[in-house]
Amino acid sequence: MGGALLKGWLSIGLEPNEITVLEPNPADWLISLTKEGLRLNIRPFKAPGVCIIAVKPQLIENLLSVKDFSDMKNTVFVSIAAGTQLSKLENLLGANKPIVRVMPNTPAVVRKGVSCFIPNVNTSEHQIKLIERLFAAVGHTIRLNCEEQMDVVTAISGSGPAYVFYLIEVLTRVGIEFGLSGDIANRLAVSTVSGAGTLAEKSDLKANKLRENVTSPKGTTEAALGVLMDKEKGLFSLMRTAVLAASERSKELGF
User: Fold this and answer.
1) How many other β-carbons are positioned within 10 Å of the β-carbon of residue 254?
2) Which DSSP helix (H) or strand (E) runs through 52?
3) Which of the chain's ends, N or C, has fewer CB atoms near its CB within 10 Å?
4) Which helix (H) or strand (E) holds 143?
5) Domain residue extents for the chain
């Protein structure tokens, strides 16, 4: 996720020489950016204005507990670690530190991400606006009303791209099973999902109305939706169970 955000920010003009990355196993593309001035695994000249904490939640305690952040008085810390609560971050970084918890998603790499965030009480409005502008540069931003909403946000938008990619995968496999070549089935699946998403984003109509507009009485779409909208075995029931599982896992990661 950190890599997706970095690629998105670089694509809008952030200069590599403005960035320091601490990464024990850097990818080749990250190493190549050192030729353009990116500081890789080198202590920055001065305390950064923004520090992005982009590590797996299982690693965050070990990582932050061995660092000294006393000289980073004007730094706003941004955590994208799933499930890691503000209170835990405050214990690790210092109770007086400005901290913003953000849940972005990988479409940020193509500036189509969505990032939901919640600041702690030490974060100034100026710092909040700075973080909002930073993430708005790679997609949409949503400020949450309370931290408790973050678990379901993680389950829907944070993990959500994987659900959509799996839908593309399944449509492709079904197309192949019914006689299409792999290339044609994949192109149909990708283009259909992409086009429907763009239409939903651009249209003034809600998703249910867009669905109804595609559905002719007693037609092919209605036949398929009869299966997908089954009350017990349909997509709503399945997706609700999936989101609940992801949300519960997000809560577990917070402890």
Assistant:
1) 17
2) strand 50-53
3) C
4) strand 139-143
5) 2-147, 160-253
Residue whose tokens read 């089954």: 230
Q: Tell me the longest C-alpha to C-alpha distance in the chain.
A: 68
Residue type present at position 166: Y
Q: Around Cβ 185, how many Cβ atoms within 10 Å?
A: 20
- Statement: the pTM of the whole predicted model exceeds 0.90: no
Residues 6+ apart with CB under 8 A from 7: 109
Going by DSSP bridges, is the β-strand pair 76-79/99-103 parallel, antiparallel, or unpaired?
parallel
Q: Give residue-wise pLDDT tens across range 140-163.
A: 999 999 999 999 999 999 999 999
- List of residues 6+ apart from 53 with CB closer than 8 A: 60, 63, 64, 77, 78, 79, 80, 81, 89
Instruction: Tell me how many degrees the CA angle 239-119-247 measures, rounded to the nearest 5.
Output: 20
- The CATH number assigned to the domain with range 160-253 reads 1.10.3730.10
Span 2-147 CATH architecture: 3-Layer(aba) Sandwich (3.40)
- Per-residue model confidence as pLDDT tens digits over 82-133: 889 999 999 999 889 999 999 999 999 899 999 999 999 999 999 999 999 9
**Type of residue at 41:** N
